[in-house]
Amino acid sequence: MNTLRNIAFIDGQNLNYSTVDSKPSWKIGLVRFRTYLKEKYQVDEAYYFLGCIDDNYSELYDNIQRAGFILVFREHNSKFLSVKKGNVDTDIVFSVMKKLYKREKFNKIVLVSGDGDYYKMVKFLVEEDRLCKILMPVKARSSSLYRQIPTKYRDYLDKPEIKKKIELKQ
Which residues have C-beta within 8 Å of that of residue 14, sequence separation ≥ 6? Predict the structure, then answer.
């Protein structure tokens, strides 16, 4: 039995905007989603990346952490705080590659995003047998690049049987 843990990296903006802007619109239940990652993919650590800190969203940040995610914000130069960009792609790629380079003890990576900017990293993780799964929030909004990745490595959170488990119940 493999006792090594899996680690998840979540592109928070991609997850949120993909689901909220889909037709029909829906939201992720954070606690339900964290439980799903733990039970389905044996994720011990789940890093939830966001673009920048905004005091107007402190309640959201608290909810993300209470659900069991490790919150990671993109670093910004203080000179550009008024024009900050939320893009976390390079931060996630760097974090994954750093863990691999430092040979941290974990089994595989779960990536949550449909953004095609991760394609090269995903392809590399498949080649190295280090990808557990890429979970794309909404099939219709996911990069077509991922069709080249074997189906056993990808899934869609808006599939009815998955959505039922992780959707925020109003």
Answer: 112, 113, 114, 115, 137
